[in-house]
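anyone seen this seq b4? input:
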Amino acid sequence: MQRTARSGRQSRGPVRYGPPAPEPGLPVLPELAAVVAAAASRTEPEPPGGSTVIREAAAGYWDRRGLHCEPEYVVSAPGAGPLLFALLAADGGDILLPRPCPAWWTPQARLLGRPAYHVPTPAECGGVPDPYALLETVRRIRAEGGDPRLLLLSVVDDPTATVAPPELVHEACEAAVAEGLHIISDETWRDSLHRPQETMLLSPAEMCPDDVTVLMDLSGSHLPTAWPAAVARFPDTADGAARRARTLDVLTAIGARIGGPVTAAAAYALGEPEPAAERVRRAAVLHGVVTAAAHRAVLASGALARPPQAGRHFYADLSPLAGGLAERGVGDAMELEDHLSARIGVPVPGGHRFGDDLAALRVRFGSGQLLGSTQEQRLESLTAGEPLELPHVIEALSIFGSALDELR
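predicted toks r here
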């Protein structure tokens, strides 16, 4: 019976039933809702690539982070998926990705019929490939007749929740540029650092400004996931202008335009007025506290996980619990996903979703579901001085810990 059910799930395909981005689990910011409501009567369509309003707001956002940007080198799209699709379609050649990587990256390359190669990441973090493994992979691809041209990476990573050290980012970018690769840096989670004063974050665009396009999904930490919007920053070069023009061609061809009300919300969020900035800060602190508690539960069970540094998730290796899992019929990441999702009651995507080895017993845990089951409970979690003392958080962490403890 189990084998039949599993085969049925597999037949539905890995994309439509793949894991969503980690949810914030928080109510919509009232000021943000008011902006959308005020723009609800807008009927004129947004131009491909976004209006001046959102592009200027994005340029200002990056300027405040030391990445000078003119609005004419920015594009927007209705979500990170369409925008990455356009970025990849605008450039030929093979694509290199870290292993593991965000679950939505690889399907974009496959949809375009482009070869995608996963490169191992170092032990200390995810998101950025090991520089030596990157060079070896590039040379192997070329020896086999391939044409590697693009490297996707994420300094603040989904699924591992780690922040790559600046020296590693520098070495990986230097290796990529030396091999003629253009870099797409996904910086969706850069504003979700749990301890920003203790964490050094360096964008690849600061190191290699002429060779890096920056991508950011606003639905990651600035907008609700129901309001898809993403922006990209291109290098201020002739090549950057050409890449932007080709990207706009693709966005135009597929009709990828943000709706007017969402454009207004995105521009508001990117402008970082105090209510929006405070919500982002509070959410990062809350998820940091709750994720750290979940991480402690994972370690207490005997499993392994890097300490989460950002985001609403972390990546765990349950191979030390292989014996207990085998007793429950769990022998790979897909079966582990099924078991933990059913036991905890929320989706727990296996590592195979992120380009990892199916045989490895790895999963991504999220913290959004630990904040409460109602909007009122989640808002209480956000405003509480000690969220770990709230009854609904205690109960959620207890269920989470019990699901792991029983595997020992």
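Residues 55 and 71 are 5 Å apart (CA to CA). Residues 274-300 form the longest helix (27 residues). kinda curious what u guys think
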